[in-house]
Amino acid sequence: MAQATNRAFADERRAAIMEMLEHNASVQVAEIAQTFGVSSVTARADLDALAEAGKLRRTHGGAVSLHKRLTVSTQDRRINVNVAAKQAIAQSAIELVSDGDTLLVDSGTTALEFVRLLDQHDGITVITADITIADYIDESMPSVDVVMPGGALRKGHRYLYGPLTMQALQMVHADLAVMCPGAFVPGCGFTTDFPQMAETKTAMIAAAHQSVALMDASKVNGRGMYRFAELADVDTIVMDCDPDGAVATSIAETADDARPNLVIAGA
Length: 267
Fold this sequence. Notes:
Domain HTH deoR-type: 10-65
GO molecular function, one term: DNA-binding transcription factor activity
Shape: elongated
Mean pLDDT: 89
Number of domains: 2
Keywords: DNA-binding, Transcription, Transcription regulation
Helix content: 25-40%
CATH topology of the largest domain: Rossmann fold
CATH class of the largest domain: Alpha Beta
Strand content: 15-25%
Radius of gyration: 20 Å
Number of helices: 10
Order of helices and strands: HEHHEEHHEHEHEEEHEEEHEEEHE
Protein name: DeoR/GlpR transcriptional regulator
Distance between the termini: 49 Å
Pfam family, one: HTH_DeoR
Structural class: alpha/beta
Largest sheet: 7 strands, parallel
């Protein structure tokens, strides 16, 4: 009887969530929890169930209507792309972190998967210009400290860039920079599609004792106009797989004292 009652309450709550989306086009987990007096876990479960039923689309921290126009961030559009690969990469990369580390964390969904695992360690501080990552830490990881530089917000991408960001990065030093390239091009290096973001990424690598590049196989020979680092500028590369051995071949062509380590997740 209690189970049936709970199911009825859940159905009513989910119908009400759909009503909220009809009026607002988007809804946040915190808003649902406050409105219905439920936990964030329950609110997320409601959104997951509605998404599975094809009634809405999940985003980080909430959901959007399938029927209304809404500006959705690049991270939200990519959050369900190559998920298994990104999670495997994050699982391998977390082995590079030690208790007490200060980490510079790049923008992107692979970086977010990495951040989700940081509560395995104590005394971690994350420096990031990515608002989605900072928001996740604030909501879900009370044991992790987060520092954000200033800067201009790139609309639709949820990260900060520009002179204020660059100035802040010149004032910090981290144990590890966790980078997420837009692409890796053999003979060129790691690239991205926005010149100011390339500048920020280069500064992050310079501000850390060591750096790691996290990228799934789709990034090899991908698109990216602006190079932010050469192969020798990073210490480790973590991938789900290396298609046609392109990255391994590039590493072999690099000078011995500048070759990064290549880690294949799960291998």
